[in-house]
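Lab meeting, item 3. Inverse folding demo.
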């Protein structure tokens, strides 16, 4: 076995054996179909939530992103951005953790992640 095959095998084994929660946070592109303000957060339901730069099959099940109301200025910016993307038919990019332990109450581990900043609007 040559060195390049050995390195490839070791890298593949590490990627397969590393749990999803141990991996780094990722960017998602979200095309919103619903923006909802709740008591402790703003929820956005994404028609298409596509992880950027990672294995799509590993993370394509996220259909909601949420932002806490702890920082009102950032939450307002997030809600405005999501609403603008919804109205204009664009998508926006958010930075989300792969580990659900930081999810807000009501943001399910099975299909939702609590957003970290930054987030940006993109044209579709």
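The presenter then showed the designed sequence:
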């Amino acid at each position: 076995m040559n060195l390049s095959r050995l390195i490839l095998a070791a890298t593949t084994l590490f990627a397969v054996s590393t749990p999803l929660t141990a991996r780094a946070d990722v960017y998602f592109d979200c095309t919103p179909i619903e923006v909802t303000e709740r008591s402790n957060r703003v929820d956005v339901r994404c028609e298409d939530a596509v992880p950027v730069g990672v294995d799509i099959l590993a993370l394509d099940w996220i259909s909601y992103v949420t932002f806490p109301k702890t920082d009102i200025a950032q939450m307002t910016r997030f809600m405005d951005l999501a609403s603008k993307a919804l109205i204009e038919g664009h998508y926006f990019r958010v930075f989300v953790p792969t580990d659900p332990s930081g999810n807000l109450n009501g943001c399910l581990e099975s299909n939702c992640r609590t957003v970290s900043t930054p987030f940006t609007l993109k044209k579709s």
